[in-house]
Amino acid sequence: MIIKTVNGKSPKIGADCFIAENATIVGDVEMGSQCSIWFNAVLRGDVHYIKLGNKVNIQDGAVVHCTYLKSPTTIGNNVSIGHNAIVHGCTIKDNVLIGMGSIVMDDCIIESNSIIAAGAVVTKGTHVSEGTVFAGMPAKKLKDISIDLSSGEIDRIADNYIKYASWFK
């Protein structure tokens, strides 16, 4: 793994986290406990801060970055960032699934208990309301989802990633 200090800021990794051998975490990055950063994932806190809550998984090939002095990235608790997703200068609240290959751009707010579908492109400044599914290019509200469905799917994936991480520790 590559863990580097940039401009005097070093990553802070919480308790019981898994970092894959070829993951990259640099600069002003802070993560809570039970997080997992998977193969080829990049968290680049060089131009602004990145904060992750507890029980966040950043899956293979995903990129988390920010915009210089303008848009940090904040990710809440119990969040899954799918394979090859890009999360850039935005706020993701608790209990969210960001689907594989999706893009979430600067100044977006993804409210709790929401799902961004695989391949969606959430354009700059979009506000995803709580308990919704957004899909498409550009991403638009597809539907409302029940708390049972969203928490069931979101919790299942987040819990599975804690289990998967245990296999590598």
What does this entry look like structurally?
- The chain has 169 residues and is mainly β.
- Helix content is 13%, strand content 38%.
- Strands 1, 3, 5, 7, 8, 10, 11, 13, 14, 16 and 17 form an 11-stranded parallel sheet that branches.
- A hairpin with a 4-residue loop joins strand 18 and strand 19.
- The longest helix is centred in the last third of the chain and has 22 residues.
- The model has no long low-confidence stretch (mean pLDDT 96).
Multimer state: single chain
Helix/strand order, N-terminal first: EEEEEEEEEEEEEEEEEEEH
Mean pLDDT: 96
Report the major sheet. Answer: 11 strands, parallel
Give the termini distance in whole angstroms: 14 Å
Number of strands: 19
Structural class: mainly beta
Write down the overall geometry. Answer: globular
Radius of gyration: 15 Å
As a percent range, the share of helical residues equals 10-25%
Low-pLDDT regions:
none
Count of discrete alpha- or pi-helical segments spanning 4 or more residues: 1
Percent strand: 35-45%
In summary, what is this structure?
With 169 residues, this protein is mostly beta strands. The protein has one helix spanning 147-168, and strands at residues 2-4, 18-19, 24-31, 36-37, 42-52, 56-58, 63-65, 73-75, 79-81, 86-88, 91-92, 96-98, 103-104, 109-110, 115-116, 121-122, 127-128, 132-135, 140-144. The two termini are 14 Å apart.
